[in-house]
Amino acid sequence: METKTIEEIEDEITEEFGFFSDWQDKYEYIIELGKKLKGFPEDKRTDDNKVKGCQSSVWLTTGIENGLIIFKSDSDSVIVKGLIALLIRVLSGRSPEEIINAKLEFIDKIGLKQHLAGTRTNGLAAMIKQMKMYAMAYKAKEQLEHKI
To answer: Which sequence positions are flagged as catalytic?
Structure first.
């Protein structure tokens, strides 16, 4: 099975959102995506794993498998949980380099920024920033290990 590129997944998301004519339906779809996020360990709901800059509580953890970063997340807000589910769909299972370079154009293509409250837009930016920071940390660690 060939892995899809970030851009291909973004195109899929853009297409899926194109099926909905109004934003009420799109919000419901985002909430549904969030409900599919499973398996976030209770003991990981700590301040250290909280995304700073989100009005809602968002917990984000990472692991690395075969050089690819795996994200797990949860939120106490159904909309935010759906937003992080979208980001995980695009970025999880990627190399640090891919995550760092991801443009995440689907956010603008589906009109997300225009239809989120300002605090949610800030929270979305904070989640993206945190995911990219994790990727930079893994990349730096990789580079250090290769030098040793």
So the answer is: 54
